[in-house]
Amino acid sequence: MDLPKLYCIRESGTPSYIGNTYDEFPYLFSIVLHHEGRFSGFPIRKYLHGKIHEVDFLNIDDFTREDMYNIMKKISEATGVVENIESNEYFCYFQKPNCDLNVGLQQLWTEEDYMDLYMYIGHGKTQFLHIYVVKEEINEECEACRASSSAESEGIVII
Question: Is 134 part of any domain?
């Protein structure tokens, strides 16, 4: 029989009970979940008008897309602030550690996407991962093309 997954969802700014737990259990991590906001335009992307919840004591060894859905659903049921969960009219992105929102966002949709995020968290890597939930998909290729073409017209080369 599988044991239930245990984690703690809290509003940003409320006290955390992590202490030095992550030092002793390096496979645990937290999510800083940004929701109900939107991204500003490229090239200086920011997350605007959102709310934040933090989810502590997640286990990297068994964290899945279904877990992310269940976390968002629990926040929605408790607060009514994560919209369109049942209709799947949302997009999730994680911010790669040490990257800004312009170049460090990667979409979370498939189980393969979740496998990609595993390489960034737990086991001596970052213990805090920022995830953004938005209603509109980011079209990176179009934004990169626009940035590249406008930069080339100004004589700037993007590498």
Answer: yes
